[in-house]
Amino acid sequence: MKWICILAFASLTILSQLKFINGYNINNPAFTTLIQVFDLKARVLIQKDWEEILKLIFFLPDDILKDDKNDTFKWIDDFIQITNLSDIEEALERIPVTSTTKSILKIICQNLDYIDEGHERIYNIYFESFKQVNEEPICRHLSGFVGAVNKFLDKRLKISRVKKIIEELKKWQNHSDEIIKKITPKKNIVITKRKEYIKQMELVKRKFNRYEIQTQRTSANKENTDYDFDFLKMLQALVNELKEKNIALESSLEQIIQIVNEFNEQRIFWAESLLNIQFYHKKQRKHIFEGIFWKRSS
Fold this sequence. Notes:
- This protein is mainly α.
- It has helices at 2-21, 30-45, 50-58, 76-82, 86-93, 102-134, 145-154, 159-209, 219-223, 227-275.
- It has one domain (2-289).
- It starts with a helix and ends in a 23-residue tail after the last helix.
């Protein structure tokens, strides 16, 4: 009776597993689905918590974009508020356009236009970086993935194949760790560049708001016939510095995106290796992956 119960339980377990792997949702996250599917097949051959092992390789740490206990990489809301240029636009309207000020005003406005466009690029890069770190592609959106998983499910997974995966796991983990280590110093640069930019933006806004129109100038400024010119030259220098800091911040964010892209590219290779099917890199030479995974396991 005891053995009958054990066999019945084992049968139910296998049936529940088959139900899962033959009916996975193509709208679910791709790499999570892959890991679950591989875990169910490989665990029968070699007892390991494949899901836990592979998650450490396939996913960046949850706190990878957290700055420190006093700061956070999730600064975009405050950044959008401080980089609103509407008060600068209002200040510019108070400055008269004359033969003396026209050329300087034009340069300032061109730089402000560039800065404003830079803000849009920074927002986009920021949201792209968070999206790539926090979101997986769904199965049906990852080119060739669904077909590859279906082929994997239809084939018998050999123990020799699983052993080869085990041999490669350490290399994968080391590569994953190396990529993660690249992010931290780049992240710290972003923190510094962002703080420098916000400080400069606040300075520029304060200076713009200190412009005195003709009827409200102090006695000293009324006597200065070059007041508008001198004031604009000062603003020009500050805005130009703001533009340079804008470029530096955008560049530092792009460097993080490049690393995240590298990680995502590597995840594809790992996924292809687990499935033993090239679904995304079919046109690339096999030796690029450094693996001997594309030969059938004997």
